[in-house]
Amino acid sequence: MPTATPISDTVEPTDADIRIEAAAGGIRESTAARRPGLITFALSAAVLAFSLMQTLVVPALPTIGHDLGATSLGTGWILTAFLLAGAVFSPVVGNLGDRFGHRRVLLAAMLVFTAATLVAAFAPNLTVLLAARVVQGVSTATFPLALALARTLLTGKRLAAAFGWIPGMIGLGAGLALVAGGIIVDALSWRWIFAIGAILILASAAMVVAWVPRGAKPAATGSTDWPGILLLTGGLVGVLLAVSQGGAWGWTSPLTLGVGAAGILLLIALVLVEMRVAAPVVDVRTFRHGPIALVSLLTVVVGFVPYVFYVALPLLMQAPADTGYGHGMSVTASALAMLPSAVLVFVGGRTTPALVARIGAGGTAVIAAAVMGAGAATLALWPTTPLAVIVGFAVLGLGNGIGYAICAQLVVSVSPSNEVGAATGLNGVVRTIGSAAAAPVVSALLTAGAVASTDPAFAFSVAFWVAAAASVVGVLVSIALAMTARRAA
Prior knowledge:
- By secondary structure, the chain is mainly α.
- The protein is 80% helix and 0% strand.
- The chain has three domains: 29-214, Growth Hormone, Chain: A, CATH 1.20.1250.20; 226-278, no CATH class; 285-489, Growth Hormone, Chain: A (Up-down Bundle).
């Protein structure tokens, strides 16, 4: 049950203080018992605000790049910077939540998120915008913090419902943002994306203040894992920097190979260090359970595949028709073309429980990856046909919605009960890494494809076939998960 945090770490509370704290604790417990739906709604709203800001900029990337005089690589980092920072901030801020209280840290993260979003709205150049996007990455921690609060405050069917809605907000927000972002850019300007985003963040923070009681008193007392934080940051930056800049530096150049190798070595060192730390920032020990490793690989696929299209489709659809590949759409038209996918992301998430009940979690994961692959292949085959692109992306959205939901459920179901929190946090990191890898991969493929072929659409087809291949990997991993489940039964 939720308990009050101490009034002070250094001053002994009086009897009156104790009575006040006890009364407050009783109110919070009563709130959790009487209004569990509002708790789930508030936590879902917080995750939705973060998810929206991940991809709200995607339809506006060409416009932002043009206005700020950025290259295509620089423009791609508007998305990548957020995701890369999020991969680091998520476990770090989640660790702070374990130590100082999940509600308190969630609200602090949302205030920082709001401030960074306002800075982005008034950014005079690309450098300031990228710095703001890095700080915005702190919002990624809202997902594990929201799940932690749900585990503390809810039980039974209410907890199961929360674990359906909260993860579902990631896919729903990403899909809605693609539509809303385009409309906002055409009707107002790209700066209003961040201004409206700040309002939504503050609104969701107000819901948390009003409806979410404090969780249980923090039990963690260990120190911050600074070596793990530094190794995680350096490793991710090294690997993604090599991938994103390889085309410009040369894929076999000493700089590309050196930076990439350094990143891999730092990530290997991270694993070795975290195995020996009592309170690791990324608990890699959860990988000793075979299914967790498989679920993590599937999660990378689910994170990677949609972001290939989030990055590539606005470029494809908004390019002039005389390029030989572009659809010649306005920003609003391209956003509306993505609307069916946004709707089906939500539908996929809500139909997942029924699929699991009928064919099991492993079978549902197979369907999710296979449907994503079918959508990706459709786009790869007919990238210059608007109807095929709309239909293919809608099909991909359905599979992605199922994928988001089933990955969250699989993490909880295959983890030992005392390691669900660590496994959930690790799963969030690997999903973000998968998403963060998409932008530099797509940029590199589009650059290389444009050079390698005289077909103007060839580069986009290559990028989409890579997403289809990743989906096939997801199918194979899902089959392995289903076979593991049958053997365990």
